[in-house]
Amino acid sequence: MKRPLYAIAGWLMVALGVIGLVLPVMPTTVFMILAAWLFARSSPRFEAWLLAHPIFGPPIVQWRQNGAIPPLAKGFAAISMVGGFGVFWFVVRPAPWLAGAVAVALLASAAFVLSRPSH
């Protein structure tokens, strides 16, 4: 019963990752890593396809082997977080407590991403 749910969730993560290719405020690699994890529990064929994919595969393999995030992906992630916060700040005009909470969450996320090995 869990396998079909994992497969559906895996394809949802792939869809979100593809959307992240064109929307700079959405990550791609994180969704693809999640998709690979879900496919590992539901469909070895789809997991193998994702790991062998010329664009999505290498970052997933690097993550699985040693928790590495390529330098370009780190930079893009950090810049996207800053940009996303800027859009949030100017479009939503959040209350100071909400802006602070989002800033802390993004800073923690950025610290995690930047602290990972590069290779």
From TrEMBL:
Please give the start and end residues of each transmembrane region: 6-39, 72-91, 97-114
Q: Cellular component per GO? A: plasma membrane
Task: Write down the superkingdom of origin.
Answer: Bacteria
Q: Tell me the Pfam families matching this sequence.
A: DUF454
- What does the UniProt keyword field contain? Membrane, Transmembrane, Transmembrane helix
Q: Which PANTHER family match?
A: INNER MEMBRANE PROTEIN YBAN
Please report the name of this protein according to its UniProt entry: Inner membrane protein
Recorded source organism is Kaistia soli DSM 19436
Source taxonomy: Bacteria, Pseudomonadati, Pseudomonadota, Alphaproteobacteria, Hyphomicrobiales
